[in-house]
Every structure is written in C-alpha cells, then in structure tokens.
TrEMBL record:
This is Serine/threonine-protein kinase BSK1-like TPR repeats domain-containing protein. Keywords: ATP-binding, Cell membrane, Kinase, Membrane, Nucleotide-binding, Serine/threonine-protein kinase, Transferase. One of its GO terms (molecular function) is protein serine/threonine kinase activity. One of its GO terms (cellular component) is plasma membrane. Residues 88-204 form the Serine/threonine-protein kinase BSK1-like TPR repeats domain. It holds the Pfam family TPR_BSK1_C. InterPro entries: BSK, TPR-like_helical_dom_sf, TPR_BSK1_C. The keyword Transport does not apply. SUPFAM superfamilies: TPR-like. It comes from Rubroshorea leprosula.
C-alpha cells in the first residue's frame, strides 16, 4: 500500500487533506516501524518526536479540537456498577489517593509484558532499570518532576515497555497540571496492556481534567467493567 502511494486508504478520515502525500508517507512508514516484532528495530521515543515534531503545525490546539470532539461541560453520569478503591478515587479525581494505590500496586501488573533474552542484559539495560528505580523513589516521595524525567529516560531507551511506568508518568503529568500529556501516557499504557483497568482509569481522570466529562464517565465505566471481569475470571 505504501509503495503504491495509496496512503489515503490508511489515513484517519479526520486527517484527510491536512497532510501532504510526503508527510503522510513519513507517518505511515513510522507506524510500520513501530510494529516491528523486535524491540531494537522499533524507533525510540526520541526518534518518534524528532520525526513527528516538524509535522505538527498546530501545537497550541488541543487534540480534542483537532479531532472535532466537543468538550462536554455536563456532569458525568453515575457509574453503572460499584467501584473499587481505584474507581472511587478516579471518580472523585482524588490524585493523592490514586498515587497511594499506584505506589502500593508497584509493578505487579507488568508481568508478562516483557520477555528479555540474555543478550539484552547489557549495560544500557542496567542503566535503564536504574533510571526506573530512581523514578520509583521520586514517585514514592512525591517529587513528580524528577519522576517524569527518570521515567522518560527509561521509556526513551525503548528496550523494555512498562504499562505501569506510563500510568505513573500519566499521574505525574496530572499533578503537574498537564492533562493533555497525561491522557497520551494513559493511552500508551492501554496500547501495551489493552485490557488493563488502570490504563482506562487514568484516561478517565485525564479526560475529566480536560472537562470532557461524558468521555470521562464512559471511560470510567469501561474501566470498572474490565476490573469486574478481571476479578471474576482472573488477570486480563
């Protein structure tokens, strides 16, 4: 498809006419690289930013405006089922309670998201895990800007992908009053672990902070449903 330049078949309808064929080809090619099986063959976060930044012409326009999504000012609907402690904290947008829950949960939900070969235990790998450890200490101690920096170092290496790190950095961004970036990290957590309730809970809080209350309520209900399913049938 890429070689025959049928890029329009691959492009989201919201983006039609907003990018040249050359720009669209760059984006599709980058997406193809991100889907490579071997982590080392995928672009790093720095490479992604370096490639995509020149294409961003409306950096001051919120993503929901570019996508044509209306900002819903109405109060969120009542959750459809009883909520867990995490669900209640997200409903109240109690970032302190969410922080305590993420600290207590540690990395228990990351099991199985990474399989590393012996050869991948390089010095770079050790440095990356050290960055994550420093981020964990900063996160625990509520030094959220330092946590963002350390977690970003971990993510930028790209050898290991952790949904928990994305969820933690998402909360850090919320606590630093950056809900747009927080939403993006919560969505990244979902990409790594598609049925993880925490990823949906974090998206619901970020959406609520952006005053997209209906979307936030829908996401909260979806998170609660996933959590209920998980408790009934085990992980996933």
């Amino acid at each position: 498809m890429i070689r025959s330049k049928n890029i329009d078949l691959l492009m989201d309808s919201h983006l039609e006419g907003k990018f040249s064929l050359e720009e669209a080809t760059v984006v599709v090619g980058l997406a193809s690289q991100c889907l490579q099986y071997e982590p080392r063959e995928r672009p790093s976060t720095k490479d992604l930013v370096a490639t995509l930044a020149p294409l961003q012409t409306k950096s001051d326009v919120p993503s929901y405006v570019m996508l044509g999504i209306s900002k819903d000012e109405e109060a969120p609907s009542i959750p459809q089922r009883p909520l867990s402690a995490m669900g209640e904290a997200c409903l109240r947008m109690d970032l302190t309670a969410i922080h305590q829950i993420l600290v207590m949960n540690h990395y228990k939900d990351d099991e199985g998201t990474n399989e590393l070969s012996f050869q991948e235990w390089t010095q770079q790998m050790r440095d990356m895990l050290e960055s994550r450890k420093r981020g964990d200490y900063a996160f625990r101690d509520k030094d959220f800007k330092t946590a963002i920096d350390c977690y970003s170092q971990f993510i930028d290496v790209g050898t290991m992908v952790s949904p928990t790190v994305f969820a933690r950095r998402s909360l850090c961004y919320l606590l630093c009053d950056q809900p747009d970036v927080a939403l993006r990290d919560a969505m990244q957590a979902q990409c790594v672990y598609p049925d993880w309730p925490t990823a949906f809970y974090m998206q619901s809080v970020a959406l609520a902070k952006l005053n997209m209350n209906k979307d936030a309520s829908d996401m909260l209900n979806e998170a609660a449903a996933l959590e209920d399913k998980r408790q009934r049938g085990g992980k996933g």
